Amino acid sequence: MDSIFTTIFCILFPIILSTILLKTLLKFLPSGYRKLPLPPGTMGWPYIGETFQLYSQNPNVFFASKVKKFGSIFKTHILGCPCVMISSPAAAKLVLVTKSELFKPTFPASKERMLGKQAIFFHDGAYHAKLRKLVLRAFMPESVKNVIPDIESLAIESLKSWDGGLINTFQEMKTYTFNVALLSIFGKDGIHYREDLKKCYYNLEKGYNSMPINLPGTLFHKAMKARQELAKIIANIIAFRREMKHTYTDLLGSFMGDKEGLTDEQIADNMIGVIFAARDTTASALTWIVKYLAENPSVLQAVTEEQEAIVRSKKESGEESDLSWADTKKMPLTSRVIQETLRVSSILSFTFREAVQDVEFEGYSIPKGWKVLPLFRHIHHSPENYSEPEKFDPSRFEVSPKPNTFMPFGNGTHSCPGNELAKMEILVLVHHMATKYRWCMMGPQTGIQYAPFALPQNGLPIRLSHK
Ligand code: HEM
């Protein structure tokens, strides 16, 4: 018996001793030589990982249970990729801003092909900076100011067409936001091409989330064909503009600027990309606002009073009834409703980045090629950042949120360049909706769809009528 213990001791003792020595040595080695552990977490099933757990329920439940178990940085496996999820505001800032050079934007190859490989989202460095300058030029407040009258016409036209009927809010808002996107990209020229662009874009959309099998008959194939059609229409608009030799202040004008030297293909990829970025996101935000206003009569009342005061003061001073930029600055309460809607609904639950090299991050190692996901939704719904986070309460924005806790438009070099336009088109539509119409929700009102954007169930059917 003794000899068995002696043998075990002789084998185990050196192993234990060398492990302790190695650990101690590693602690004192410079960080470059040290191998940090992977973040804690579980990887789920081979290949499928935990995709189903994330996408089959409210993502808040998935995030909150992981954070409780593993802390604010944890590993998982979704959509066929190993990932690290980041749920603290400070760490999200590191990924998106401070150390953004270590984390590049990443999308599945099929999505890149469909939207166009040269589109702004897929790039970093000099090419990205150049595109971003051009996009920001077209969407900065100075430029957005000029399109307010046209946005207003679109809002009035949309509301009239919904009057008296039962509508699917999200579907109708998509038409409105699509038309506003075309306006800001192609100016008034967009109207001539609206129907053709719409038809192609809808075919592209149908195949966007399909299996990427490019064979005749598949949704993916139809979407790729629709994409080519879109590029052709855009090429025609570009050719027409070259002949006209006018100066245009819309997005296409910004991209066609003489000095920019972009190819027609680069321009088309970016125009399609911007429509994609602008339409469903803003339509989703509008759908949530309609829901929250219907559910919170006192907030709706306050918004209506704020908007009616603007109409009244314009009448009294003999001003034109059209909304001006200055009017939109007199809507602080409505603006807080937009902020709170964006927080609660967190339309983009998270974004994707990829580690460009092995990265040491907050005491963990993130291997090169792993996806890194800052969790906007979790940050917006954490009681550490917002008291009673599930409650819709626009007054919380009377005080600025803590740094890096409010990121509906992202953060850093890839943050949303269209945010001013998005807020403007929402304000204009809410102005006319609250002052002239009433609406009620039809059907179940509690369900939420999450793929890919958070949306009220069935797109929120409502009945809307003139007051
Ligand atoms: C409420 C509506 C909107 C929301 C919530 C939203 C949200 C976002 C977010 C979170 C990002 C950053 C993604 C990332 O870092 O990976 C982004 C990027 C972007 N958004 Fe928006 N967006 C909205 C409306 C718009 C509009 C109206 C436009 C254009 C007219 C637009 C154009 C873009 C573009 C071009 C990018 C990519 C920027 C880059 O990669 O540098 N978005 N958006």
UniProtKB/TrEMBL annotation:
<dbReference type="GO" id="GO:0009737">
    <property type="term" value="P:response to abscisic acid"/>
</dbReference>
<dbReference type="InterPro" id="IPR001128">
    <property type="entry name" value="Cyt_P450"/>
</dbReference>
<dbReference type="InterPro" id="IPR036396">
    <property type="entry name" value="Cyt_P450_sf"/>
</dbReference>
<feature type="transmembrane region" description="Helical">
    <location>
        <begin position="6"/>
        <end position="26"/>
    </location>
</feature>
<dbReference type="GO" id="GO:0046345">
    <property type="term" value="P:abscisic acid catabolic process"/>
</dbReference>
<keyword id="KW-0503">Monooxygenase</keyword>
<comment type="pathway">
    <text>Plant hormone degradation; abscisic acid degradation.</text>
</comment>
<keyword id="KW-0560">Oxidoreductase</keyword>
<dbReference type="Pfam" id="PF00067">
    <property type="entry name" value="p450"/>
</dbReference>
<dbReference type="GO" id="GO:0020037">
    <property type="term" value="F:heme binding"/>
</dbReference>
<dbReference type="GO" id="GO:0016020">
    <property type="term" value="C:membrane"/>
</dbReference>
<dbReference type="GO" id="GO:0016125">
    <property type="term" value="P:sterol metabolic process"/>
</dbReference>
<dbReference type="InterPro" id="IPR002401">
    <property type="entry name" value="Cyt_P450_E_grp-I"/>
</dbReference>
<comment type="similarity">
    <text>Belongs to the cytochrome P450 family.</text>
</comment>
<keyword id="KW-0479">Metal-binding</keyword>
<feature type="binding site" description="axial binding residue">
    <location>
        <position position="416"/>
    </location>
    <ligand>
        <name>heme</name>
    </ligand>
</feature>
<keyword id="KW-0472">Membrane</keyword>
<keyword id="KW-1133">Transmembrane helix</keyword>
<dbReference type="GO" id="GO:0005506">
    <property type="term" value="F:iron ion binding"/>
</dbReference>
<dbReference type="GO" id="GO:0009414">
    <property type="term" value="P:response to water deprivation"/>
</dbReference>
<keyword id="KW-0812">Transmembrane</keyword>
<protein>
    <recommendedName>
        <fullName>(+)-abscisic acid 8'-hydroxylase</fullName>
        <ecNumber>1.14.14.137</ecNumber>
    </recommendedName>
</protein>
<keyword id="KW-0349">Heme</keyword>
<dbReference type="GO" id="GO:0010295">
    <property type="term" value="F:(+)-abscisic acid 8'-hydroxylase activity"/>
</dbReference>
<keyword id="KW-0408">Iron</keyword>
<dbReference type="InterPro" id="IPR017972">
    <property type="entry name" value="Cyt_P450_CS"/>
</dbReference>
